[in-house]
Amino acid sequence: MPRTTRFIIPDVAAHVIQRGNNRADCFRQDSDRLVYMLHLRELAAKHGCVVHAYCLMTNHVHLLVTPNSQMACASLMRDLGQRYVQYFNRRHGRSGTLWEGRYRSCLAESARYVLACYRYIELNPVRAGIVHHPREYAWSSYAINTGARTDPFVRPHAEFEALGTGLAARQEAYRALFADALESSMVIAIREATNSGYPLCGEGLGEVLAAGGCKLGPGRPGPRPKECAELNSGSDPELFG
Questions:
Q1: Phi and psi (nearest 5°) for 213?
Q2: Which of 64, 115, 170, 238 could lock 53 by a disulfide, CB 3.0 to 4.6 Å apart?
Q3: What values do phi and psi take at 224, rounded to 5?
Q4: Sign of torsion, CA 144 112 47 39?
């Protein structure tokens, strides 16, 4: 079966998820998460990916990143996965694969979808029943994005910055977004888009992609991967990974 095409466009945010093989744990203790974050910091800078949000669950990882080039996200996840697996196997006396195949991703473009992905990622521990509020979970970017702690590694997306004038106002507006749970329809949309590689985009980008025949969701016919790639670049089949 052919691989699912990934839509990756430079300077457009992407929601990325990587799971442990057979849903097995990829973090057994906090020191594992510390090592993962150490490598994520280094490799995100190396490959030109800005990290806006993250959440390290027991058996999977969520990231919201903006790559600065066509292959930045793929290079980040490849090197991050390899480095961490080497550490994890050595630390826990195991061998073989750790990850469930390739990472999965979807574009997140427009204020509606970017901010929804922020919330989807940081609310993951709440949906899993681990905590009652995202502020109670130590291994996500919620505390950084709401101002409870500072970390220059996590940088705001333009849609986050548009929430208010000044950092304090933006953080207050962002906290207010968590007063209510993320709509179930949006949770389903993000989950399906990420698992299938469909873009979550506004009308502008959606029209451009649809005009080129790119598949935008379940049941909508789309072209072969190369045709989608050539839509944005004119000739480069690597654009969508």
A1: 85, 10
A2: 64
A3: -70, 160
A4: positive
What residues pair up with 119 in beta bridges, in sequence order? Answer: none
Tokens, residue 118:
């922020």
Q: How are strands ordered across the β-sheet holding 104-107? A: 49-56, 60-67, 14-19, 104-107
The backbone region for 71, taken as left when phi is positive above 0, alpha when psi lies in -120 to 50, beta otherwise, is alpha
101 burial level (CB within 10 Å; 0-12, 13-18, 19+): exposed
CA distance 37 to 83: 11
Angle at 204 between CA 112 and CA 52, to 5 degrees: 40
pLDDT in tens, 182-226: 999 999 999 999 998 888 876 555 555 554 445 555 544 333 333
Read off the tokens for 199. Answer: 């873009």
The one-letter code for the residue type at 218 is P
List alpha helices for 6-110, DSSP H: 30-47, 72-92
pLDDT tens across 11-61, in order?
999 999 999 999 899 999 999 999 999 999 999 999 999 999 999 999 999
Stated as kind and residue range, the H or E segment containing 203 is helix 203-211
Contacts for 148 with CB less than 8 Å, ≥ 6 apart: 135, 142
**Is residue 154 classed as helix, strand or coil in its secondary structure?**
strand
Query: Residue 141 belongs to what H/E stretch?
Result: none
What global pTM score does this model have? 0.84
Q: Which amino acid is at 55?
A: C
What would the two tokens of residue 225 be?
A: 């991967």
**Beta pairing, strands 14-19 & 49-56:** unpaired
